[in-house]
């Protein structure tokens, strides 16, 4: 009897541990679902409100069973005689895509110098890049406005391109340095032994390996540029007006603008959502590679 007791207690202890793991995983999965639903609900609410009439969208409490209509989308696209959004959307695409391309062109060599071939006091350099993001954006608004006014670049889309490039470059260098530090230096040295110069190493060795990190960095820079509104609101008027500034034009003192604003917000968010969906694999790989360490 005394020899059989330990033998019967071992399986029960072995079964308890997986059961605890399953319960913990189930609890974490439930929390993840609740957080996901919490984030998705406002988007679903915005989509439903965009399909209501202005009178139904302004009711309190909201009417879920109200008739659906596409009037909000028709007014956003100028079917009712209003301004067309295509020019503002084109300005947003230009400012976001071109500034993101400039950021990548500048951030990749800088990150290479800070990770694979570190310069002296490279940690101080990284801190300097990060410290530039600590300045409140509004603190630089007046000097930049006065500079743009004196140089005649107000309401010019290329001023926004330069601003967005300078604003996103520090965080891009920070992220790219983290990604490039994961590349084995033996690959770089092998390419150098074969006679490859720096441009060839960057384009044919470093860039393919760091592609998930480059995709994650470019997507984040694109989102920051696309959603930026403070500088675009102050520095642009009619010619260089971006999509977020165009969206604010639907807000009036009459109060019946909720459906139009929801429709405009949904349409303006589609490029960012499409870019995120298309690059979701690269984005997850890139963020798990080093950006969140």
From TrEMBL:
Gene Ontology cellular component list: plasma membrane
Report the superkingdom from the record.
Answer: Bacteria
Report the subcellular localization: Cell membrane
Q: Which GO terms describe its biological process?
A: transmembrane transport
> Domain ABC transmembrane type-1 spans what residues?
89-279
The record ties this protein, via Gene3D superfamilies, to: MetI-like
Q: Where are the transmembrane segments?
A: 26-48, 93-114, 126-145, 157-180, 201-225, 231-250, 257-279
For this UniProt record, give its keywords in alphabetical order, as a comma-separated list. Cell membrane, Membrane, Transmembrane, Transmembrane helix, Transport
PROSITE patterns, A to Z: ABC_TM1 (PS50928)
Write down the InterPro entries for this protein, in alphabetical order: BP-dep_ABC_trans_perm, MetI-like, MetI-like_sf
Its membrane topology is listed as:
Multi-pass membrane protein
The UniProt entry's sequence similarity note says: Belongs to the binding-protein-dependent transport system permease family.
Q: What is this protein called?
A: Carbohydrate ABC transporter permease
Q: Which organism is it from?
A: Streptomyces bathyalis
């Amino acid at each position: 009897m005394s020899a059989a007791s330990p033998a019967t207690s071992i399986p029960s202890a072995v079964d308890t541990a997986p059961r605890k793991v399953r319960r913990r995983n189930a609890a974490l999965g439930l929390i993840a679902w609740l957080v996901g639903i919490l984030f998705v609900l406002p988007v679903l609410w915005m989509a439903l409100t965009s399909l209501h009439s202005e009178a139904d969208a302004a009711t309190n409490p909201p009417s879920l069973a109200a008739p659906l209509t596409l009037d909000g989308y028709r007014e956003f696209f100028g079917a009712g005689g209003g301004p067309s959004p295509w020019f503002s959307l084109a300005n947003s695409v230009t400012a976001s895509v071109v500034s993101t391309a400039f950021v990548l062109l500048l951030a990749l060599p800088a990150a290479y110098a800070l990770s694979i071939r570190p310069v002296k006091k490279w940690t101080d350099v990284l801190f300097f890049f990060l410290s530039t993001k600590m300045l409140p954006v509004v603190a630089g608004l007046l000097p930049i406005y006065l500079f743009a006014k004196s140089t005649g670049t107000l309401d010019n889309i290329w001023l926004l391109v330069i601003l967005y490039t300078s604003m996103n470059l520090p965080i891009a260098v920070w992220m790219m340095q983290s990604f490039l530090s994961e590349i084995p230096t033996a690959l770089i040295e092998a390419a150098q032994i074969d006679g490859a110069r720096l441009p060839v190493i960057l384009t044919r060795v470093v860039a393919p390996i760091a592609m998930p990190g480059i995709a994650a960095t470019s997507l984040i820079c694109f989102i920051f540029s696309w959603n930026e509104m403070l500088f675009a609101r102050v520095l642009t008027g009619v010619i260089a007006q971006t999509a977020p500034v165009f969206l604010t034009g639907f807000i009036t003192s009459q109060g019946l603008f909720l459906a139009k604003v929801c429709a405009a917000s949904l349409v303006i968010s589609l490029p960012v959502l499409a870019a995120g969906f298309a690059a979701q694999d690269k984005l997850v790989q890139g963020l798990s590679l080093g950006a969140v360490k």
